[in-house]
Structures are given as C-alpha cells and as structure tokens.
Amino acid sequence: MVTPPGDTMTGMRVVIAEDSVLLRVGVTRLLADEGIETVAAVEDGSGLLDAVLEHRPDLAIVDVRMPPTFTDEGLRAALGARERVPGLPVLVLSQYVEERYAVELLAAGTGGVGYLLKERVADVAEFVDAVRRVAGGGTSIDQEVIAQLMARGRRNPVDALTPREREVLGLMAQGLSNAAIARSLTVSDGAVEKHVGNIFAKLNLEPSSDEHRRVRAVLTFLERA
C-alpha cells in the first residue's frame, strides 16, 4: 500500500506541527542529521497555517491532536494548509490508529500524503524514507492503519463500539435522553456524554446542519440489528 518514492530530494525544507516540545526537537534533529532543514516548528494548528504560507515547505509533518481540545486540530489544519497551498505534501503522525482521520486525509485521492504512528519515528530509516516518499508526491501509510481500514471495510461500524457504548446506543434507540440513560445505567451524566461522543466518533458522524447525529446513530444501530 506504499507507492514508489519520487526522486530523492536535496535541500528539503519541512514544517513541523507538534505540541510536544521533546518530539519537535527530536524530529528536527533527526531530520537535520539526514540533511533535511526544518524551517519552522510550531505547537498548534494556527501556527502551522502561518508557517506553511510563509515558508512554502516541501513537506508538513503534523500531529493529529493539538491544542486547544486535542482532538483533530492538527488534521484540520493540515487539510486547511493543503487548500491554501494546493499539492502541499502532508505526513500526519498519530499516537494511535484513528481510522476516520486516516480516511479523511486520504479521501482526496491525491499523492503527497502519509499517515504514520508516532512509534515509527524511532525507526529512523523507516521514518526518513516516509518523509522523502511523501515529499516526493508518493504515499506512506502505516501498516497498522491499513490493517484496520481493511477490517473496517468488512464490518458494520457498530461492531467497533465497546459493549457499554452499544448499550448506550441501544438506550438511545429507545428514545432515552442522556439523563435518562445515566439513571438507567447508574452512571454520571458526564460518563454518558463521553460514551455518546465516542459513539459519534466511531460511527463517523460529524456535526451537520441538516441531519441529527443522534438519529443517524440510531439508524445505524437499527441497520446492524
């Protein structure tokens, strides 16, 4: 699932967006040892956009989760940067396999994209190869991401829910409010809100002006049943 890299690039310039100072410094030094210049290292999505517009780098290396909410700010900023600078190669780093983010990044169907788990950075040769491959217009997708995406294609999204999340979704299907679900399961309202948020994320239900996510989640549950 990895395309052949383009010609080896010399004088490559990258922008790094990562909220962890240690990882920013570590990746910068690692790249420098390979003759790759880091022209900017920032800690949030807005910094990434500013740096990309200012430096027009050969590659942006971006963490998925960054301030302020540590959900998908990095990915949103990366997608925004690609809109502002068409064709900008982006290599996303993630602590865990987050399927919906990988799918969204790859949805455009263009080259110059990568999605790697952060643990791969420890394998210097593999990481540098991914950097050069993506900067050259190719793709580099973590094997674990590929395995999960392939499995996802063979299952109903509801199967990805935990037993407790399926229980909450079942009560949602019965028309119960979050407060009523909390009373039924003898848990806090906050715990139910967290479960509901996880359900929306795992079912890939983004906020929409014309569809109610709660209804769509229930419909997915009923289709599975």
UniProtKB/TrEMBL annotation:
Keyword Phosphoprotein: yes
Gene Ontology molecular function, alphabetical: DNA binding
Membrane-crossing segments per the record: none
UniProt superkingdom: Bacteria
Database matches in InterPro entries: CheY-like_superfamily, NreC/VraR/RcsB-like_REC, Sig_transdc_resp-reg_C-effctor, Sig_transdc_resp-reg_receiver, Tscrpt_reg_LuxR_C, WalR-like
Gene Ontology BP terms: phosphorelay signal transduction system; regulation of DNA-templated transcription
Residues annotated as domain Response regulatory: 13-133
Pfam families membership: GerE (PF00196), Response_reg (PF00072)
PANTHER family documented for this protein: TRANSCRIPTIONAL REGULATORY PROTEIN NARL-RELATED, TWO-COMPONENT RESPONSE REGULATOR
Protein name: Two-component system response regulator
Organism: Actinokineospora spheciospongiae
